[in-house]
């Protein structure tokens, strides 16, 4: 008996990379899987390959598991609802939603247009809402269910040229926490995971300067399949008490991230004026200001 025996999971963006690894591992753990993938280009527009979802389904079935392919878009409300309905129609229930689908349209903020911003938020943030909201009434009625949303250190810490992606991924954290709070009473949990992995998503990183080449060389050591066991554990009965948290998985390392809390306060009985704030508060807080770190400035050691 696997940890997910008798359960049904929807995994979005599961045709390649991290999503593929999760779908395969969930099937090995006994879950029936709806394998969602559009089969589009990295930017999320235009056809790339319509077969990744079917290929993953074929792998699962060849190993004796159960799976169906889905090609709906998470960015579309009807598409998100259709994925959940397909799980019910094909397997009779749904127990877990893994929001992994993503796209990239990297560029410096002062060059970014509204279409590039909206396209990335549409997949990552609205997409996570669409599929989660579609499953929420079912989870509520059955008194159980697990949401796992993929965030990123680009949102948690920061990265160059990713204002759209960073905003979406930090928004996913807020969405996950709100779901956890709102649905705790129904036995439903929601968590966010920042995956470190060399996939098609990160393979678009520039690789021209020596600094960029060093960064890419480090990223290539990050194995996409390493994310999957943690997601399986979160979605299993063993993870029932875990909700509202932010995790990271980097090869054999697992992180629990902090969440924003006040670290310094300033008070005056007379109330603040702008001049008093400028004179007293900024200097008082300065030692605790966060520098403009990028993700690579924080995770400086080689993955293990």
TrEMBL record:
It comes from the Bacteria. Residues 7-201 form the Ketoreductase domain. InterPro entries: KR_dom (IPR057326), NAD(P)-bd_dom_sf (IPR036291), Peroxisomal_Beta-Oxidation (IPR051687), Sc_DH/Rdtase_CS (IPR020904), SDR_fam (IPR002347). Pfam families: adh_short_C2. The lineage of its organism: Bacteria, Pseudomonadati, Pseudomonadota, Alphaproteobacteria, Sphingomonadales. This is SDR family oxidoreductase.
């Amino acid at each position: 008996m696997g940890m997910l025996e008798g359960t049904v999971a929807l995994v979005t963006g599961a045709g390649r990379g991290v999503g593929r690894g999760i779908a395969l591992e969930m099937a090995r753990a006994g879950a029936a899987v709806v394998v969602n993938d559009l089969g589009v280009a990295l930017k999320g527009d235009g056809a790339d390959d319509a077969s990744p979802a079917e290929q993953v389904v074929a792998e699962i079935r060849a190993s004796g598991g159960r799976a169906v392919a889905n090609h709906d878009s998470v960015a579309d409300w009807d598409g998100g609802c259709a994925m959940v309905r397909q799980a019910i129609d094909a397997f009779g229930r749904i127990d877990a939603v893994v929001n992994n689908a993503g796209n990239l349209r990297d560029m410096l903020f002062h060059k970014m247009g509204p279409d590039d911003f909206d396209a990335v938020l549409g997949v990552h943030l609205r997409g996570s809402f669409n599929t989660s909201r579609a499953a929420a009434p079912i989870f509520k009625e059955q008194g159980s269910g697990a949401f796992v949303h993929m965030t990123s250190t680009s949102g948690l810490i920061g990265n160059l040229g990713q204002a759209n992606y960073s905003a979406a991924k930090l928004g996913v954290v807020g969405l996950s926490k709100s779901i956890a709070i709102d649905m705790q009473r129904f036995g439903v949990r929601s968590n966010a995971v920042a995956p470190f992995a060399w996939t098609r998503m990160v393979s678009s990183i520039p690789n021209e300067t020596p600094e960029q080449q060093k960064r890419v060389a480090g990223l290539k050591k990050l194995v996409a399949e390493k994310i999957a066991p943690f997601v399986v554990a979160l979605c299993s009965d063993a993870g029932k008490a875990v909700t509202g948290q932010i995790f990271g998985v980097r090869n054999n390392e697992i992180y629990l991230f902090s969440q924003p809390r006040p670290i310094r306060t300033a008070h005056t009985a007379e109330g603040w004026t702008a001049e008093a704030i400028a004179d007293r508060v900024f200097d008082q807080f300065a030692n605790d200001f966060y520098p403009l770190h990028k993700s690579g400035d924080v995770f400086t050691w080689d993955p293990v």
